[in-house]
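Q: My hope is that you can spare some time for a protein that puzzles me. Underneath my words sits a plain record pairing an amino acid chain with its backbone structure tokens. Those tokens are not coordinates but codes from a learned vocabulary of shapes. Thank you; the sequence and its tokens follow:
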Amino acid sequence: MSNTEKSGESRNLSSVAAALRLLKTFTAEEPELGITALSKRLGLAKSTIHRLVVTLVSEGFLEQNPADGRYRLGLLLFSMGTLVRRRMDVAEEAAPLLHTLCEQSGETVHLAVLHGSEILYLRNIESRHAIRPRSYLGVRKPAFCTSEGRALLAFSPPMLIANALRADLQPRTAHTVVGKAELQRLLSEVRESGHAIDDEESEDGMRGVAAPIFDANGNVLAAVGLVAPTQRLTKQKLRGIIPMVTQTAQLISSRLGYDAD
């Protein structure tokens, strides 16, 4: 990269940082601010502030009050905030049912959401067994090889699935399926059965099953997952666990307003 390119990139990053600082200037006490006030608070020239707000208004992050010309946060931020709130809501609604599943099965239970081509664990209810998976809370893992990820991908829009499988799929264990055609077949099976299985594909010695959670509009929102060591969660025992996991996912979906009929 040339010095000119580095300089341009640095300016772009500086502008992004300034725009984010500007957005954080608005508060409940001061929901509307003018150019002069923003300039003083950020210590930037009025011309710079004007350039930033024009860009933010055009992208929907800010809007201008036509009565006095001052600026306020735009509805786009509200819309983005509702996406975060949806994830918070599902975590709260799911909590008691996840605890029940953990108690009934005796195994570790997860709640995960899709984040690009990865999953993010929002809840982790640990088994009381001495030998159990490590806590995944806040951890990200590839979606393609985890039971939660497959449960989410299977019911996601085709473009999202394509993007997730377009990534460089690296095997995590000797059992990880990385072939695109085989993964598409597995996702098709998940859509048919309503659950996904991870048989030592994301972690050696661990077997898991997951089922999707849907919101009131029928969109897949999260996944309930259960995982345990393979010597305890045998394939025979797994057959009895699957209905417990899918029922838990269905109950959470119902609490979120989803009607399967």
User: Anything to note?
Assistant: The CA atoms of residues 52 and 58 lie 10 Å apart. Residues 3-73 form a domain with the Arc Repressor Mutant, subunit A fold (CATH 1.10.10.10). The radius of gyration is 23 Å.
